[in-house]
Design a protein that fits this description.
There is one protein chain. By secondary structure, the protein is an alpha+beta fold. It is built from 15 helices and 10 strands. A hairpin with a 2-residue loop joins β5 and β6. The longest helix has 26 residues.
Length: 425
């Protein structure tokens, strides 16, 4: 049985326990002989029991004990229906808090505590130091540059002439395509259509305003409707609903240039005294480290991002806040800049692609929902879309804190010492 938290404590006692044991034995025998598959347990048992029996079966097959994976507090009724198939338990990731960080954004305003889910020692401490610097300097300026989730179906055509005809048809029928896309959702709006040609392949990059949802499911369903119309109207053959011009869960120059999800920029002006007292370095050294490491070093390496460790902070906040962890790759396209000023330095980060949402996906899982509540962004905003924009700005400020701290540590030659003290395995 399970207590109110979902923590499994035993099999019960008496007649009911005996019945359960007999039932479990029958089910395990069916799993062994192949007459019942693991995913079918959810049809036979209550979610909590399906998870336990599935885990015990995997333990039997592998010889591995999975006791801690079986301890959890989340609502498995919801998770097994919406978030995870063949569930056997959960993996717990430590969550630290950094802050407060003062943010002066278009949507996020005030002081915030940042939840960071990570197993990397020194990361939370580093972001915390950056938060302190930003708050002492009066707060980070943060703005949303663009807002739009993309999907890009790919079509096969008969020739390059036919490919161009398809592009022309799409341009001429934008209103019709928009109406078709928006008929599939009560929230999403088709905001842009851009076509690309590569030989006989045509890619139609569709961009949507998805309000408070990250929106991949929404735009995929809408794009299917648009794809069918284009195929019917042009004779082109729809090959794949995603043609990788989106581009989803891959580092891509198109996302860095055109943006995907929420595009955010954050910056902070630091005085010479603040750089000296908090970061233990000076503006000239801070500038040089960023120039030679983040800009020249990244260019020489052929990197698509020009930053110190932006994806580190994006991933930690994504995991804590129920975002799709694979999208943390988009954080690697961040550009960090340092401008020397008469009074000190202006440090900024530009994040062209942050696919985030505050409804749907993992945002409804109990622990992740609590982290969103900590930030004041859980659920749908008023008006719709404001909570997701606010979350994007908060993450942008968090990345700025992380970049600022690491640049300072490198400039002051403190990096190895910090990892020796906080990050030893």
């Amino acid at each position: 049985m399970a207590d109110d938290s979902g923590h499994q404590r035993g099999r019960g006692s008496g007649a009911k326990a005996g019945q359960n044991n007999e039932r479990d034995t029958i089910i395990r025998n069916k799993l062994r002989d192949g007459s019942l598959r693991l995913y079918e347990l959810d049809r036979e048992l209550a979610p909590i029991d399906a998870i336990r029996v599935r885990r015990e079966y995997i333990e039997e097959l592998t010889g591995a004990k999975l006791e801690n994976i079986g301890i959890f507090s989340i609502d498995v009724e919801r998770v097994t229906k919406r978030n995870c198939e063949n569930m056997i338990g959960t993996v717990q990731v430590p969550v630290g808090v950094a802050g407060p960080i003062r943010i002066k954004g278009g949507h996020a305003q005030g002081d915030f505590w940042l939840p960071l889910a990570t197993t990397e020692g020194a990361l939370v401490a580093s972001v915390n130091r950056g938060c302190s610097a930003i708050t002492k300097a009066g707060g980070a300026d943060v703005r949303l540059l663009r807002d739009g989730m993309t999907r890009a179906p790919v079509f096969a055509t008969d020739s390059v002439a036919h490919a161009v005809q398809v592009c022309d048809w799409v341009t001429a029928h934008r209103d019709e395509l928009r109406a078709a896309a928006e008929s599939t959702t009560s929230h999403g709006k088709l905001s842009d259509i851009v076509t690309f040609v590569a030989g006989t392949s045509v890619f139609v990059r569709l961009e949507f305003d998805t309000k408070d949802a990250m929106g991949m499911n929404m735009v995929t369903i809408a794009s299917a409707k648009v794809g069918d119309l284009i195929a019917q109207g042009t004779g082109a053959r729809l090959v794949a609903l995603s043609g990788n011009m989106c581009a989803d869960k891959k580092p891509a120059a198109i996302n860095a240039i055109m943006g995907r999800g929420r595009s955010v920029v954050a910056g902070i002006a630091l005085t010479h005294d603040q750089i000296s007292s908090i970061l233990k370095t000076d503006a000239k050294t801070l500038f040089e480290v960023n120039y030679r490491k983040n800009l020249v070093g990244s260019a020489r390496a052929g990197a698509m991002g020009f930053n110190a460790h932006a994806a580190n902070v994006v991933a930690a906040m994504f995991i804590a806040c129920g975002q799709d962890a694979a999208h943390s790759i988009d954080g690697s396209t961040c550009i960090t800049t340092v401008d020397q000023t008469e009074t000190g330095a202006y440090v900024a980060v530009t994040l062209p692609s942050l696919p985030v949402g505050t409804v749907g996906g993992g945002t409804g899982v109990d622990t992740q929902q609590e982290c969103l509540k900590l930030l004041g962004v859980a659920g749908s905003g008023n008006p719709p879309g404001t909570n997701a924009k606010k979350l994007a700005e908060i993450i942008g400020a968090a990345v700025l804190a992380g970049e600022l701290s690491l640049l300072g540590a490198l400039a002051a030659q403190h990096l190895a010492r910090a990892h020796q003290q906080l990050g030893r395995g």
